[in-house]
Amino acid sequence: MRSLALFDFDGTLTTRDTFLDFHRFFWGSRFFWGFLALPVAAVRGSLSLRLGRDSLKEAFLTRLWKGVPLEEYLAGALRYAENRVEGFLAPLPVSVFLRHVERGHDVYVVTASLKDWIEPWASKYGVPVVGTEMESEDGILTGRMRGANCRGAEKARRIAEAVDLRGYDKIYAYGNSVGDREMLLLADEKVYNWDHVPMF
Questions:
Q1: How many angstroms from the chain centroid is the CA of residue 112?
Q2: Going by DSSP bridges, is the β-strand pair 3-7/170-175 parallel, antiparallel, or unpaired?
Q3: What is the pLDDT of residue 58?
Q4: What would the pLDDT profile of 71-128 be if each residue is shown by its tens digit?
Q5: Euclidean distance between CA atoms 200 and 198, whole angstroms
Q6: Cα separation of 100 and 22, whole Å?
Q7: CB 108 within 8 A of CB 130
Q8: If phi over 0 gives left and psi between -120 and 50 gives alpha, with beta otherwise, what is residue 196?
Q9: Which of 26, 35, 75, 127 could form a disulfide with 122 if both were Cys (CB 3.0 to 4.6 A apart)?
Q10: What is the DSSP secondary-structure string of 87-151?
Q11: Pairwise CA distance, residues 90 & 140, whole Å
C-alpha cells in the first residue's frame, strides 16, 4: 500500500510563522523597510485581478531583496535554519511527520513560505519541500517571486506537478489555514488544526 503525506509548515509543523521571523532575523531593524511598500501595493492590488495577499507579499519581498546576491540570501536562509527552525517545531506534529517518514510513506512539506530555510531541516529526513521561491537573474535577486505564491489553488497545482496522485492508495494532508484548503481536498485523510491524529 503506497501512501503520501502532505504537510503545511507554518502553524502546522511549527508553533509560529517563520516568514516574518526570518526577515527579522536577517535584516534586523531594516526589516521594517519592507512594510513601507505595502500601502501602495494594497491600492494596486485592489485595482487588479491579482489576490491582494500575493501583491503585498511580493511588494514586501521586492523592498527588501531586490538587488541582493542570491548567495547572500541563501547563506542567511541556512543560518536561520540552523539557529531558529528547530526551536519553533511543535512536538506532536513533528512526531506524526516522523512516523510517516519511518513508515516509508512519500512525505512532502508544502508551504507558502520561502522554501530555502525549510529545506535544510526537511532534507535531514529525505523530505522534499514545495514552496514559494525567489526569482534571480545572473545570481542577483529581482525581489519577485518565481511563479505564484504557493498557497490555495497553487498548492494543489504544485503538488500535482510534483507527484502523480493517482499512484497512491492513501493520501494524508495536514494544514491549519484557508490557504491549505485545496491541498486538504486532495487527501483521503484531512487533518485541520490537529483536530485529530490519524492512525496509520
A1: 4
A2: parallel
A3: 86
A4: 999 999 999 999 999 999 999 999 999 999 999 999 999 999 999 999 999 999 999 9
A5: 6
A6: 27
A7: yes
A8: beta
A9: 127
A10: HHB-HHHHHHHHHHHHTT-EEEEEEEEEGGGTHHHHGGGT--EEEE-EEEETTEEEEEESSS-SS
A11: 34
- Percent helix, strand, coil in the chain (nearest 5)? 50, 20, 30
Amino acid at 42: A
Q: Is 182 helix (H, G, I), strand (E, B) or coil?
A: helix
Q: In the chain, which residues have pLDDT < 50?
A: 40-43, 45-51
Q: State the amino acid at position 136 in one-letter form.
A: S
CA distance 32 to 24: 8
Give the rounded distance of the alpha carbon of 14 from its chain centre: 11
Strand order in the sheet with 170-175: 129-132, 106-114, 3-7, 170-175, 189-192
